[in-house]
Amino acid sequence: MPSTLLNDTFLRALQRQPTDYTPIWLMRQAGRYLPEYNATRSRAGSFLGLATNPDYATEVTLQPLERFPLDAAILFSDILTVPDAMGLGLNFVQGEGPRFERTVRNEEDVAKLHVPDIDATLRYVTDAVSQIRRALTDAQGRQKVPLIGFSGSPWTLACYMVEGGGSPDHHTVKAMAYTRPDLMHRILDINAQAVVAYLNAQIEAGAQAVMIFDTWGGALADGAYQRFSLDYIAKVVAGLKREHDGVKVPVITFTKGGGLWLEQIAAIGVDAVGLDWTVNLGQAREKVGDRVALQGNIDPAVLFASPAVIRTEARAVLDSFGNFPGHVFNLGHGISQFTRPENVAELVDEVHRHSRSIRAKN
């Protein structure tokens, strides 16, 4: 799918190349804070109806780009598509979030797990990737911005598979990790193989960067994090296609609550490490130097403040990183559904404006 990128700032930043300004995209940038997203979701009938239909997924992926001058698009999907493809029966309960009809908690459950046939079970995702790439590209082959593909990490997927849904303390999955580590490692190994196949299929379909969301890695203790989360992210990274159609495909990983392990995460072969809002960005840059790019990390709650405060906080993040290559501006986690779109516009504008002024001082 050859195309010429009109805006490759995001990809160059991930490769720690100089850029005219700091690129920005937002985790969950296509979501419930946008009225147009809610209208499309209503037409789709449900979240799964939205996520499993390539036409709807393409529509909502493009919506934030039509509102804001963001520097990347991210595939609209869900991290739980992979365990759903394993036959666990995903559904979304109003007010409760995701639930699986079947959990994975014993020898028999684990024995039934298998790496899904991506083309047979998740074709709707790869079709959406290809369709979004086409929608981002004009008749002359000029693509507006790059497209990011993604997956949950093996550990984060296991949390939902064992718990059966979201959990405030991850009691069941952590108990398994300590009492039956053999079972947990078998789950994680299958998950890692599935994530490799899934992300490589997205790359083949047209994703120009991929991100691994380790949402619940920070729930683990030091030592357990390395054994049950980081080691398996490293296996995924080692199995990914890092080049497609002669172009490098950067890899980002993000462990929420993972600032403690920044240097270890940076050493597994990724191109960029995402950081949550608890991390001092300047100190993080000093620790990793030019080994990896950094992504983040303003507190999403800042977007509830006044425009003046939003702009002040955006400048603080940019000033903390400094005038160095290798920064992609993002939130420290996903955007809240209660955020005003007008406030997002203020943030995007200030990131572009202030980062240009920082570069001009060179």
UniProtKB/TrEMBL annotation:
Q: Which residues are in the Uroporphyrinogen decarboxylase (URO-D) domain?
A: 23-32, 148-164
Which EC numbers characterise this protein's activity in its record? Answer: 4.1.1.37
UniProt: substrate binding residues: 28-32, 78, 160, 215, 333
The UniProt entry, under SUPFAM superfamilies, shows:
UROD/MetE-like
State a single Gene Ontology molecular function. uroporphyrinogen decarboxylase activity
Q: Which family does it belong to?
A: Belongs to the uroporphyrinogen decarboxylase family.
User: Under which name does UniProt file this protein?
Assistant: Uroporphyrinogen decarboxylase
Name the gene that codes for it.
Answer: hemE
